[in-house]
Amino acid sequence: MKPHPFDYAAPEALDEVLDLLARLGDDAVVIAGGQSLVPMLNLRLARPEMVVDLRRIADLATFTITDQGLRAGAMARAIDVEEHPDVHLVPGLGDALRQIGHPQVRSRTTIGGSVAHADAAAELPALLLALSGQVVLHSVARGERTVEAADFFTGPMMTVREPDELLTSVWIPAHPGSVAVVEVAKRPGDFAMVGAVVAYAIADGVISDPSIVLFGVSGQPVRMASAEAVLVGAVANANTFQATVEQLREEFGLLEGFRDDVYATGGYRRQVAGTLVARALASMS
Amino acid sequence: MNEHTIRLTVNGENAEVRVEPRMLLSDLIRHQLGLTGTHVGCEQGACGACTVIIDGRPQRSCLVLAVQADGTTVETVEGVECDGIENAVQTALHEQHGLQCGFCTPGIVMSLVAAHRAGVPAATAREQVLDGHLCRCTGYVNIRAAVDAAWEAAGDRRTGYRQENLGQESHRQESHGQESLGQVSLGQESHRQGGSE
Amino acid sequence: MRPRHVGQRVPRVNDHGPLHGTGLYVDDIEVPGMLHAAIVRSPVAHGILTAFESESVPGSASVFGPEHLRARVHAEVPVLWTIGDQQQLGTPLVDEHLRYVGQPIGIAVAGSRYQAEDAAEAVDLAIDYLTPVVGIDQALAPDAPLLYPDSGTNVIATFEAGDSAEHDRAVFAAADRVLRTTLRIGRVHGLAIEPRGIVAVPEPRRAPGNRNRITIYTSTQTPHGVRDSVCEVLGLRQGDVRVVAPDVGGAFGLKDHIYEDELMVVIAALELGRPVKWIEDRFESLLATTHARDEIHEVEVAFDEDGSLRGLRVDGRRNVGARLAVFGGGPLFTALGVVPGPYRWESVRCGGRLVATNTMSTGAYRGFGQTQAALIRERAVDLVAGELGIDPVDLREMNMIAADELPYRMRTPIQLDNGDYRRALRRAGELIAEAPAPPDDGLARGVGYCSYVQMGGIGPSDANEAIGLQIGGFESATVRFEPDGTVRVATGISPHGQGLETTIPQLVADELGINPGTVELVHGDTDTTPYSAYGTAASRSIALGGGAAVVASQRLADKVRAIAAEMLEANPADIELGNGRATVAGTNVDVAIADVARRAWQGFRLPDGSDPGLAESYAYEPVSATFSYATHACRVAVDTETGAVSVEEYVVVHDCGTIVNPTIVEGQIHGGVAQGLGAALMEEFFYDEDGQPLSSTLLDYHVPVSESMPDIRIEHLQIPSPHTPGGMKGMGEGGTNGSYAAVVNAVCSALPDADWSDLATPLSPSRIWQALHERA
Ligand SMILES: Cc1cc2nc3c(=O)[nH]c(=O)nc-3n(C[C@@H](O)[C@H](O)[C@H](O)COP(=O)(O)OP(=O)(O)OC[C@H]3O[C@@H](n4cnc5c(N)ncnc54)[C@H](O)[C@@H]3O)c2cc1C
Ligand code: FES
Ligand code: FES
Fold it and tell me: Ligand 1: which atom is nearest the Cα of residue A185?
């Protein structure tokens, strides 16, 4: 199918983009890599009046990776970050990126687009949440605001970003310990049926900075706080991990909007989420 | 709808065309520029038949608006050179019987040519790169054989490939089949790598 | 001493186009003045269309609604197979009774595809909603809404196959034990990577009597079949309609007839007097190109303690969707016909029911029911082996028809021809046992087998008529020397990936003593090729189309010998053909065959009884279907905690008679295995309860990718068919038939403790996990 007609602008200055968004609100949609937007345009599921292309705004395409973390302009491309020699400085980042679709898709996919799109089964939003990252938004009305990942995602493809706001950059802090990004997908390259990001560090023989995020199991990536709590200050051993997974499965039962569909039952997702987390924990110790 | 004038280089030639904003690059290439070697199998980004090389990277031309290609350099199957690796890919696909109906083939040629130029090892090309293409006729078996033959013929330019990636890929290759979840193993292994930094 | 080209790995002659971008697929065709179409489709699964308003459509576009279209229709779209008590013999081109999402109800035509879609979208539809029925069980429920209220039932036809009820009861009563199982065979989509498409080019008043001629370029596997239906439905003369199949990007049974939406394109072109192109997009393709399978089988197997298989009972129900596809219930009928397979049974009794639901039609797809038959039988065999603790290869072998028992009449009652089924089984067992031992990684492993006999080359024509199939079973060829000594072979079969452009010339070249490089296949055009009701389908092409070419070539060779003998002043019986020359045996007196051809077309001093020219035509009426066979064996690794499966090792030992080109045969097997593996593990088309399709993108309908597929070890047996000229047995569908059941059996054997009493394919991770953890 072919898209419904729309107008197109590719401004060279951020302010012009923000002006367009301020003027058009919901009628405008920005295009970043287009790897989620264009399929929706093609299916006529998205029918914007105006498509605003970010490709000419050079600043948005830059990114820096240090041992502190990734600061990525919204238009930084997944493939460029993935192939950057320092990508390992942010544990989990390369793994998350490599599980997005295929190389041919990642060559356009942007960091900002993936986060703004907020697919419940997407890897990058889950990583951002697990590592307590931040999202920077700009608009004419509100100026610049920084939103914690924990506050950013609100539901299936929903975020706190207002229609007139542009996501300009993403901050993913480097975790002091190890990070695993694991998932079960139908085929390599598909969105996850069940996925988990698991992180922790070990200091003085005990676990610190634990983080467990599930994705693909409900409307948005979810942080499993009570399961994390089991890990804090515990010794990294099989008993701890088992207790964590048991707690996780309990907590899972309380999740809202829990996915149960033709591809995988809710029972399956619940059980396998636990399995993935258990494996990740074990592989990291 | 207001049309836009765009300029791009396609297979080494400069083109200046007027397009509606909604025109897909795949349609521009095929129907306005008449380069019908690029095929369209889904317009959903999933089949890979429309893959072309844009500014050196293989991309889905069905997921790029033609206006977005303004100022870019596009290579299609018609522009693949008749020597070197490009030709090695085509020759190997022919000799290994890596195509049947041929509909998926142009996209696969473009991805493989781009992968080899970038120094991607054969093992990665056989798996991750080919996974980005659906072929319903060949079961991929002979396409993989063609990857091996082409890389062999043109020389596996591994040296150009970044070291950590190389380690990652070859490790993954060994573990294929042990872990039935390629993606789980991928995540776990690289975690180990990450953790050892 | 002539070079034999048959059996050689001759490289394919038609790879250049796709590799270099010079192929010509239907969407590559541009015609001056061409318009573009988009189809208006039903958004609901069940309802009555009460209005089709095109007021909001921009004036630059033309829209044809149901009434307008109906005015051009002379007859229903035919259903070519009548089975059992089936009443539905055709379906209307347009119908205000909407029975599935995607049903075509109108067409919009404009200057570009983009504008045509805008116009189609601007059509306002008024619909009275009816309650849909989606699944087989729902459709059979006593109070189910009816798709065809006049018939009083959703059952479109019932039929039986095999033994009588009395015989069946007696065998089951006498057997030591009986096992039963339910198999749910998921709905799949054949999914050619090239969707359908058509360019209809009317040529005003080019035909005599001021009639319109129309040329139809379409992505089809059956050009003549398309022409026949166009003419029947629209009331056109067959001579006025030319159908051309350009390069076709895969078909697999989906492109075996003309669809209603394509007929609408033809109508629009005729009405507007302009060329009209319509290319199906993937969304439409998933909704409205025939699906396949969607069956439930209740299977019972009777056997003795010593492992002897005695009786097989199958009650099969097939969801045929909203209307019968062109071959109606043929796939279920065929499944039940071949279900006995390569084993001896004392009784086989089958019942089939075709059930209408508010979903897309299910029709032909590679295997045409034989894939399901293999699963039914091979699951039953494995259940018995498991129950008795007998090795599945041993149990198969002890019940398998031995080479010297062939020919053998199955109880359904199809006559098998020749071969050595046990050898294929044993060898496959050996090969899979030789596979490298799996690592100790905690995954569950299992080996699965599937032995099958594949009926191909369907015919003879009288047998088709006897089973209610309204098309003949023969194939024809015309082999013609040109005056320069090159040869053209016109055939009714219509290759689209099978490599027949390479293999038919190999066959012809050997008969004529020339190089295959000088032989060209002419195909895919009703104006230049002999009639074929099938085109390329049903594992027929090399066996029957190739068979026809072989006999025509043999006759042509006789003629070459006669003329050469005249030229060389020798006896025709002493002339040998080879290396492009006709030679008097035992001498070096010879003449180039090209010179013979030139002389034949000059008509100079031809031998008595020889007409001028050098061409022969032959219509090959088969004496029987052909039966290739194989055993597939594979090893899978299952992650019992996630249900994920990987197929690690795969072997095929098969016999398809004479192998014209091993490379091409292997390629067919590879592709077939991938399709069966997909159906076993990941492919399923879903509807929700309202009949809305859920699998409307290629991210929701999962076909195998490279990493899903193992490498495949293939061994060929070659026992030529006793029937076909050249000895070929068709094989295009076999790979699919073997892999589906072999993979399912392997997963079941890896997880013996899971509950497989009600087995549904695909065996997705979630289903496997449920069988292991929720049901067991
Ligand atoms: C075959 C295929 C497989 C895929 N598999 C995966 C997968 O496994 N995992 C995964 O995570 N993704 C997957 N994706 C989707 C991923 O590749 C998308 O690219 C990504 O989700 C969106 O990034 P983008 O840059 O392409 O954004 P776009 O498609 O351009 O935009 C997506 C949405 O975000 C909005 N948006 C984008 N940038 C901004 C911004 N800076 N500010 C405000 N709003 C913005 C757009 O308006 C739009 O609504 C797949 C895609 C394809 C085609
Ligand atoms: S047509 Fe672009 S990916 Fe299928
Ligand atoms: S060769 Fe037909 S789809 Fe790949």
Answer: 8
Element (H, E) at C167: helix C165-174
Quick one: residue A62, left, alpha or beta (phi over 0 = left, psi -120 to 50 = alpha)?
A: beta
- Domains, chain C, in order of start with CATH, read 31-130+192-251+255-288 (3.90.1170.50), 291-460+623-773 (3.30.365.10), 474-620 (3.30.365.10)
Structural domain harbouring B57 = 4-79
Q: Class of A7-53 per CATH?
A: alpha beta
Whether C250 is in the pocket of ligand 3, judged by its Cβ within 6 Å, is yes
SS3 assignment, position C641: coil
Q: For residue B180, is pLDDT > 70?
A: no
Dist. CA B78 → ligand 1 center (Å):
30
Q: Are both B121 and B171 inside the same structural domain?
A: yes
In Å, how far are A99, B64, C75, C695 from A37, measured between CA atoms? 19, 10, 44, 19
Q: Would you place residue C383 in the very low, low, confident or very high pLDDT band (cuts 50, 70, 90)? A: very high
Residues B20 and B74 in one domain: yes
Asked if residue B182 belongs to a domain, the reply is no
pLDDT band of C87, cuts 50, 70, 90? confident
Q: Output B191 or A117, whichever has higher pLDDT.
A: A117
Let me know if the fold of A7-53 is the same as that of A178-284. Answer: no
- Collapsing DSSP to helix, strand or coil, A2 comes out as coil
CATH number, domain with residue B69? 3.10.20.30
Distance of residue A58 Cα from the nearest chain C Cα, in angstroms: 32
Q: DSSP for B98-141? A: --SS-SSHHHHHHHHHHHHHTT--HHHIIIIIHHT---SSSTTH
- For residue B40, give the ligand 2 atom closest to its CA: 1
Are residues B47 and B9 part of one domain?
Answer: yes
Nearest to B103 among C194, C674, C675 (CB): C194
Q: Has this prediction a pTM greater than 0.80?
A: yes
Positive or negative CA dihedral for C634, C639, C643, C644?
negative
Q: Above 0.90 for ipTM, yes or no? A: yes
The strand pairing partners of C479, in sequence order, are C489, C616
Residues of C in contact with A4 (CB under 8 A): 118, 121
Fold of A59-173: 3.30.465
Same domain, B15 and B59: yes
| pLDDT tens by residue, C518-544 | 999 999 999 999 999 999 988 899 999
Tell me what pLDDT residue B191 has.
Answer: 32
Segment (H or E) for A9: strand A7-9
Q: Splitting chain A (285 residues) into consecutive groups of 10 residues, what average pLDDT does each group show?
A: 97 97 96 98 97 97 98 98 98 97 98 98 98 98 98 97 97 97 94 96 94 95 96 95 94 82 92 95 88
